[in-house]
Structure formats: C-alpha cells, structure tokens
C-alpha cells in the first residue's frame, strides 16, 4: 500500500485519538467521561500496529514520527500509575515496615551497634573521667547543654522557645539528619557509618557529662520517652544506608544495577518509615517531654510504654497469627 | 554513545524513543525550581512573621516541605515534571518509559543529597556525563531517567506536483531519502534545494530548478499520488 492511501485511510482515527489525548491533558476528569475513554486501549493498540506497519513499509519520516509521538502519549496514559490509596499507607506502617526492618536485621543490628556501643561506652567512661567531656565538646557547647538541663530551668530540655517552634525545629532537623544518613550510605556505607558513630558519641557524651555533673535528673526525665522513637528511627535510617552501601560493594549473585535499584527502593521505604517515627518523636518531644510539672511515676510509665510499643511493633508487627496469614 | 536516544520496547512490540536530557537543561530546570522554592518560602514567611515564635516553627515545617517534599509532590501530581522541568520541557520517567511512580520518585529525591555533595551537584554532574542515559546517581539507584518531553514539530507536507515514474528502481532507503528530501524542501533555501538536487544528476538527467521539480515529482509518485 502506498503511503498516501495509508494516511488517507487512517488519518481520521489518528486525529481523533490525538484530540482526545489533548483534552485529557487539559481536563483529565472530563476526558475520562468521554465515550473514547472506553475505546482507548483498543485504539492505542491499533495505532501501535499502524506504527509497526509504517516502519516496516519504510514510510516517510513525517508519518512514522507522527505515529511515534501519538504512541508515546498513549503509552503514558495507558500505563499511568494508579492513584495512591491511603489505606495502603496505614497497612505499610502497621505491617510492611516492621517486616522490612526484620528482613534487614543484619544491617539494623550493625547500625544499632555502631550507634549504641560508642554511646554506652562514653556514658560509662565519663562517670569515671568527667574531665574527658572537655576533649569532646567546646566549653561553649557544654555551657549550652548545662543551661538546657539546669534543674532550675522551668522548661525541660530547652533554654527558650514555644512548643510549636520546637516541634518545627525537631521535624526539620531530625528528619533531615535521618534522610541524609540514609542517602550518604550510598558512598559505600561510609556516610551512614560516620553519622551513626558521630551521633552515638555526641549522645553518649552529653548523657555522660550531664549525669556526671549531677544534672542527670532533668536530662533523663526529658529524653526517656521520645528517645524510643527518635533513636530507633536514626538506627533504622542508618541501617537502610548501610544496606544500600553493602549492596553496592557486594551485590551477591545479581548484577550490580538491578541489585542497587532493589536496595534503593527498600531503603526509601525504610526512610519513609523512619520519617513517620520521627514525626511522632517530635510531637512527644515538643508537647510531652518538655512539661516539667509531670509527676515522675506517670512520666516513666509512659516512657516504658513507648519503648515497649516501639520494640513490640518492630519485633512483631505484621507477623502472621498462630493460624497463618 | 553520542546518540542520547534510548529505545525501549513496549508490550505492544514497538519501540519507544526516549531522548535523555543532559546536564545543562537539567541544571537550568533546577535553577528555576530553586528560585520558585525561595519565592514560596518568602511568601510563606510573611504571614508567619506575625505569629511570633510559633511562626518560626511553622516556617521550619515549610522549609522542610520545600527541601524534601516539593520534588516528590511535583513529580507525582504533575506527571513527572517539577515546575522547572515543566518550563524546560523535561520529564522523569521510569526505566520502562512509564510515568514515574511514588517509590522511584522518593528514592531519587532522597539520594539527591549524594548527587549534590561536593559544592553544587558535583557527583551528579560527573554521573550524568559518564552515564549513557545521562542519569545521576539517584536516577541509577531509583531506576528512573529524565527525558525531553517536548515533541518535535511535524506537519510538513510534500508539495503536490504531477507524479513521475522513477527511471530505475531504487532501494527502500533511497526511496525514503527522496521522500524525506521532498518533505523538508520547504525548510531549505532554493539554493540549497538545487545544490542537493544536483547531486542526483545521474538519476534526473537535469540540473537546478528542473532537477528539484523532477525529484518532487518522483516523491509524489512514491507516495502514491496521481
């Protein structure tokens, strides 16, 4: 068949499809209500067939290019992702995220060790050698820590600022740190290792110093509740980064490219879960932990509940029941 | 390596041609996005300034949203285009050419941190220059690609003239070249048309204006016009 005849036969169909796709770009809802929306998959496949014919018969650039563009627009519409469903987000947080954390337990254990070992070691060391704190921090920073946790301070854990201000600050600061920890894991895991160990040293150093100088009371009462969410989220983000870096170094029996893509998606899911945990932590830290008037029994029982909740959720969330899933 | 077009086979058995976008248009799109985000932040700051210290907390939340969530929200709602990419005619797509989905979008925008590392996008620049698909590290790990979305113009018609039979049979590629010449003739100057037509003197047997007219006649014949 000559090109001219081919175009004359099908041009009307191509124009119709093109007009509908244009309308869909401008007014998606109205376009989807049209009769053509039902016809679209079949019309798209016919145009694909026309393109294959046009290429095979060596029709001119104009015709193949026109069909090519029509097919690409159609491809984008036909294979568009389904709209997000919010109950999927809930299911992810309740079940999929804890499962994912357990599936990556090696990296998570490594991340936890990288964070908690320096933290606990420093905490113990500073009780014996309190002067070591001056090696870790400048005296200005030490003074700032001491001001925040001064037993005479009416607010716990901050020198000034309202609840809302501190909430915004905690979200911005902590979530940015967690996301950077994950992303820097791509540098062969070095970034994640550095952030985890550095944060372990800082947290352990502050805790050890304040305990050693007798400000331990306000400090522990402030951090005990929200640390359940905050420190776990940091460890999870670090573990996600380590997982990414280790996949880059040793992809196992897979090609590096596909292995990295899979690890990247797992890491992004873990980072999103850590984000949710950090928002909860910021709420607790800004609106609960800082209330100095709370009686100690209430405060510590809520803290115990928070730790049990986090560990139980991460350890058992999404497990099949006794009778199977 | 020089050609930035990637062919991707679809389930229909035809190939999509994705034109990978290089570092320069992407840097321009990033600049536009950065300016837009700064303006948005300033606009948000004006009412928040009246709210006192609490407003400072909300400003931090706005900064967080513009720093991290802006990209993902734009890419998911605007069909793979942040505002800067839309201005430059770029689009983020999955590796198989389908519109970008939320998980790859989150991945590539979290890993932006690594691409941005030394100075301004040092790692990203090196990666886009080395990778044949011009992907930055975040794109490689997320399995995405940034492509040119602007469609090249078409609609040039072969000028109608009485069809003429070819004196000798031509191979299919030669026929296609003849029709392409006729389609593009109106974009060329008359001198250039004649210069090209003169190359085919052995076929047409004449020169200059007559040669151009004869080639257009052959093209009309090849298209099946009377």
Task: Give a short synopsis of this structure.
Chain A is an all-alpha fold and about 325 residues long. Chain A has helices at about 5-25, 30-35, 35-55, 60-80, 85-105, 105-130, 135, 140-150, 165-185, 190-210, 215-250, 255-290, 295-315.
Element order of chain B: H for helix, E for strand: EEHHHEHHHHEHHHH
Shape of chain A: elongated
Compute the number of helices of chain B.
Answer: 11
**Terminal Cα span of chain B:** 44 Å
The helix fraction of chain A, in percent, is: over 70%
* Number of alpha- plus pi-helical segments of chain A: 13
Separation of termini of chain A? 59 Å
**Strand neighbour order, sheet with most strands of chain B:** 1-2
Helix content of chain B: 55-70%
Word description of this protein:
The complex is a heterodimer of chains A (325) and B (226). Chain A is an all-alpha fold and 325 residues long. Chain A contains 13 helices and no strands. With 226 residues, chain B is mainly alpha-helical. Chain B has two domains: 144 residues, no CATH class; 49 residues, no CATH class. Chain B is 56% helix and 9% strand. Chain B is built from eleven helices and four strands; from the N terminus they run E-E-H-H-H-E-H-H-H-H-E-H-H-H-H. Chain B has a two-stranded antiparallel ribbon. Chain B has a two-stranded antiparallel ribbon with strand order 3-4. Chain B is elongated, with a radius of gyration of 26 Å. The interface between A and B is large, with 60 and 59 residues.
């Amino acid at each position: 068949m000559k090109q001219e005849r081919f175009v004359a036969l099908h041009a009307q169909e191509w124009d119709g499809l093109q007009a509908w796709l244009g309308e869909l770009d401008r007014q998606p809802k109205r376009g989807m209500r049209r009769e053509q929306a039902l016809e679209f998959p079949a019309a798209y496949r016919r145009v694909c067939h026309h393109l294959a014919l046009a290429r095979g018969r060596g029709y001119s650039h104009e015709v193949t290019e026109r069909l090519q563009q029509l097919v690409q627009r159609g491809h984008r519409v036909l294979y568009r992702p389904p709209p997000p469903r919010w109950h999927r987000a809930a299911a992810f947080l309740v079940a999929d995220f804890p499962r994912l954390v357990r599936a990556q337990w090696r990296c998570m254990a490594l991340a936890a060790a990288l964070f908690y070992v320096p933290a606990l070691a420093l905490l113990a060391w500073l009780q014996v050698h309190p002067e070591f704190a001056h090696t870790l921090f400048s005296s200005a920073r030490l003074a700032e820590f001491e001001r925040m946790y001064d037993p005479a301070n009416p607010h716990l854990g901050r020198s000034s600022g309202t609840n809302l201000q501190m909430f915004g600050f905690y979200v911005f600061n902590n979530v940015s740190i967690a996301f950077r920890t994950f992303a820097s894991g791509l540098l062969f895991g070095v970034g994640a290792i550095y952030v985890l160990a550095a944060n372990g040293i800082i947290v352990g150093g502050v805790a050890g110093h304040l305990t050693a100088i007798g400000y331990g009371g306000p400090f522990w009462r402030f951090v005990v509740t929200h640390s359940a969410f905050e420190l776990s989220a940091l460890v999870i983000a670090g573990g996600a980064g380590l997982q990414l870096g280790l996949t880059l170094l040793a992809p196992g029996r897979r090609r590096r490219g596909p292995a990295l893509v899979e690890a990247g998606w797992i890491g992004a899911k873990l980072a999103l879960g850590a984000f949710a945990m950090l928002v909860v932590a910021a709420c607790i830290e800004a609106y609960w932990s800082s209330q100095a008037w709370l009686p100690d029994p209430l405060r510590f029982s809520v803290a115990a509940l928070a730790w049990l909740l986090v560990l139980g959720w991460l350890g058992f969330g999404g497990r099949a029941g006794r009778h199977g899933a | 390596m020089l050609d930035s077009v990637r062919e991707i086979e679809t389930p229909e058995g035809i190939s999509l041609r994705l034109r990978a976008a290089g570092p320069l248009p992407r840097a321009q799109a990033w600049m536009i996005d950065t300016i837009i985000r700064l303006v948005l932040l300033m606009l948000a700051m004006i009412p928040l300034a009246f709210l006192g210290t609490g407003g400072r907390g909300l400003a931090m939340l706005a900064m967080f949203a513009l720093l991290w969530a802006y990209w993902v929200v734009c890419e998911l709602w605007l069909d793979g285009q942040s505002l800067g990419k839309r201005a430059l005619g770029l689009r983020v797509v999955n590796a198989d050419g389908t519109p970008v989905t939320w998980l790859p979008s989150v991945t590539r925008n979290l890993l932006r941190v690594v691409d941005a590392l030394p100075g301004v996008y040092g790692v990203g620049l090196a990666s886009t220059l080395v990778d044949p698909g011009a992907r930055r590290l975040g794109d490689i790990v997320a399995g995405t690609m940034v492509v040119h979305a602007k469609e090249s113009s078409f609609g040039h018609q072969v000028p109608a003239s009485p069809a003429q039979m070819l004196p000798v049979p031509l191979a299919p590629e030669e026929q296609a070249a003849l029709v392409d010449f006729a389609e593009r003739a109106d974009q060329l100057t008359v001198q250039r048309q004649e210069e090209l037509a003169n190359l085919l003197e052995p076929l047409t047997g004449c020169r200059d204006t007559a040669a151009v007219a004869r080639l257009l006649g052959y093209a009309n014949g090849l298209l099946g016009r009377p």
